[in-house]
Amino acid sequence: MKIGIKILGCPKNTADCEVLAGVLRKRGHEIVKNAEEAEAIIIDTCAFIEDAKKETIDTILDFVYYKKSRPDLKLFVKGCMVQRYYEELKKEIPEVDGWFGVLPPNEIAQAIEKASDLVKEPEPVYDAAERYDLEEKPYAYIKIADGCDRNCTFCAIPLFKGRYKSRPMEAIVDEAKRLLEMGKKEFVLVSQDSTAYGTDIYGRQALPELLKKLNSIKGDFWIRVMYLHPDYTTDEIIDAIHSLDKVVNYFEVPVQHGSDKILSRMGRIKKRKEIENLFSKIRKAPESTIRTTVMVGFPGESDDDFNQLLDFLEEVHPDRMGVFVYSDEEGTVASKFEDKVDEEVAREREEQVVALSVELMESSNKRWIGKRIKVLVEGEGYGRGKMDAPEIDGNIMLIGNAEVGRFVTVEVERVQDLEMEGRIVG
Questions:
Q1: What is the pTM of this model?
Q2: Which residue of 47, 61, 251, 396 shows the fewest CB atoms closer than 10 Å?
Q3: Dist. CA 119–CA 78, nearest whole Å
């Protein structure tokens, strides 16, 4: 069967789908890139926040409409949205031929062949022995764990992903070696909370040990760690990222807010001052990059709380930033809070944070002007430095020619509209 795969949501879904594609190919199926060629389409879904859920539904309905012109096309939907809303989805969208929850790719492949639904207790971690390169990019996402045991009051992820579960170090290292053989030059380690890696299977925070093992693999490549929970980012984790030569000094630490009151209501442990101290430790390595995410419009967020957030951001000066507006998620503690923030007010606050983030990021980029940096060429005329993660951060526009997938030395010449421009010098 010729199968096309549409990936929505986070990088963990990309990793899941590439393993699923590998399993399907091993079972004799062909993976195709165009819907017109496909005999079946698989949609991997996201259910994190309201906007993600809307995108998922819109995408499913788009393919349902497309299916009307091709009645023999099989349409399958998998992942977080199905795990969370299976009964409602099955009832409202009967045109879908199979619904699959958060389950191992081998089981999903069998269900696809039977065109039968498969939804049970989530199993987000699995054997990743097979993998097929869907993205054809010089980097790859490696899922080191999934699920979550944290108690953030706004987040529904534990409800449909289940408890935190780490993959064994040996399996992760083996996958990295296979990806290196495929020509990948950057491994992006993803999970719901990378600081918790190993706590379930080794009884300790084992991220530093995992990084050392990956760092010992022979070859010229980068290792990037995503999502470090601020409450559990230890000195040992910071030191490992600072000291290991293949691990880029990039710290994604989603703080969510800068008001102690709101942080407490969110279920976070560290106060603003402690987070500022954490960022100071990270900054001890002068070329470290800090990326954070904040939420505005959380229930009870007053004008004073919001001003504290703005003051906090100006104080810690993150190099990269994202912002989103709070939305009620069924089953969460925060959804039961009564002191909601007016949506118009929340959107105005979002605009203010976005404007500030542009100023901060542009200022951060300017510190690289005149410096020579290592850049991974991602496409014709552009690449990324260590300070930018794929897909969510910016690019460096390149003056000169270089082969995609190679590292080059670039001298940064200017910054414009959050993009850097540099000349290839080696």
A1: 0.92
A2: 61
A3: 9
